[in-house]
Amino acid sequence: MKHLTFDPKSFLKTTKHTDTQDSDTQSKVSARAWYDRKYIGYEIAELSEAKDNNEKPPITFKILDRQFTIHSDLYDIADEIRDSRNILDLKDGWDHSTGKAVRPELYFKCIDFLLMYTNYIHKIYNIVIDAPEINLIPSGSIDLSWRTQGARMLVNLKYKDNEFLATFYGYHKSNMLPHEGFIDILKVDESMAVWMKQLK
């Protein structure tokens, strides 16, 4: 339980009694003081806890016409997404060569994919995975790249043949066994979510 927000010494003050007060009256006063200290104090502390718990509202921000709301625990993910919005400003030739501009719908598919997995892992396993680097590739596709103490993972999202596709490659440092293939960007793959728990 959190500390009370008022002076706890006030609970220790005793009521002054005159000599005419009998022990019965003093006993009732003491009992009342104990009741106030035990129950009223706890109620105030609980209200203080509730207030503290509400001090971190969800993180909300907007990119173009899309608004995102993210749990406050995922602030690193939110920061990386907000930083990545500059990708949308890049034009063809952004790399001083043949680099292609990103399709806005691909960018948002990428962000939705990232949030889908990070929110799921946080909600189901109470784990906050690290924020990946979000980078535009000269081909016009987007990479999500994780390099953590426990694992490495690269997810590439692209638009090809009129559909959005995602491939991944990664390994856990504990065994170095490669994990790769295609991944559904519209729904969570439970086995993939379990694997991604190491990205922290």
Automatic annotation (TrEMBL):
Gene source species: Pedobacter westerhofensis
Protein's recorded name: Uncharacterized protein
